[in-house]
Amino acid sequence: MSTAVKISNELFEKAKIRSKVFKRSIAGQIEYWAKIGQITEENPELPLPFIQDILIGKEQIKAGQGTPYVFGEE
Fold this sequence. Notes:
It contains three helices and no strands. The chain has helices spanning 9-21, 26-42, 48-62.
């Protein structure tokens, strides 16, 4: 389900540029920023690159690339 939300023109223009660079829709770019912001608020001790690596790893596992880490195994 989608919902219309008003955002500033400045945010829209920034998202428009980033969406082209990262091959996302403008809405997808804003959703990405919202997701990163939410994760960062919930985990303030984690640096952004670490959060991004976790998200990349999760997508790689979903795509069948790599294996999940099992704690206690090396």
